[in-house]
Amino acid sequence: MSRTPFVLAAVCAAATLCLVPWYRPIRGEAKHSAVQLPGARAAINAADFPSLQAAFDALPPDGGVVDLPPGTFEITQPLVLSRGDVLVRGAGPATHIRNVNT
Q1: Quick one: pLDDT at residue 73?
Q2: How many CB atoms are closer than 10 A to CB 57?
Q3: 16-21: which pairs have CB atoms within 8 A and are 24 or more residues apart?
Q4: Helix (H/G/I), strand (E/B), else coil: 31
Q5: Is 91 in contact with 70 (CB distance < 8 Å)?
Q6: CB under 8 Å, gap of 24 or more: what pairs does 37-40 form?
Q7: Residues pairing with 99 in the sheet
Q8: Burial class (CB in 10 A: 0-12, 13-18, 19+), 16
Q9: CA distances from 11 to 17, 61, 91 (A)
Q10: In the chain, what percentage of residues exceed pLDDT 70?
Q11: pLDDT on residue 34
Q12: Full-model pTM
């Protein structure tokens, strides 16, 4: 049984219903631990990793979602997606990937 109940949120901008995870950390449980529903794709928050490449590499072999929060991500070499079925989701015009490779 899941420790993280899901609550139904308001209607999103795209007129679809969204499920928002809500949880109270249990003693000793990591704050960033996520509950994955059966059949759901793994979701990775790129801000939790030292680089975008590390976030892509943390995805399971069957792929998933890499969420890029608002901000600027600098890369010095090409990003390599070594898994299939990967969705990179940014925060619209507030997310930037800047190539600083010289």
Answers
A1: 92
A2: 14
A3: none
A4: coil
A5: yes
A6: 37/2
A7: 75
A8: exposed
A9: 5, 32, 18
A10: 64
A11: 52
A12: 0.61
Is-contact 75 56, C-beta < 8 A?
no
DSSP 38-86: TTPPEEEEGGGSSSHHHHHHTS-TT-EEEE--SEEEEESS-----SSSE
**pLDDT at residue 19 above 60?**
no
Is the separation of the CB atoms in 47 and 25 below 8 Å?
no
Q: What is the pLDDT of residue 9?
A: 34
Distance CA 65, CA 4 (A): 20
48-87 tens-digit pLDDT: 999 999 999 999 999 999 999 999 999 999 999 999 899 9
Q: What token pair was written down for 52?
A: 């975008």
Q: Could you tell me the two tokens for 91?
A: 């925060």
Q: What is the dihedral of CA 78, 82, 87, 88, to 10 degrees?
A: -20
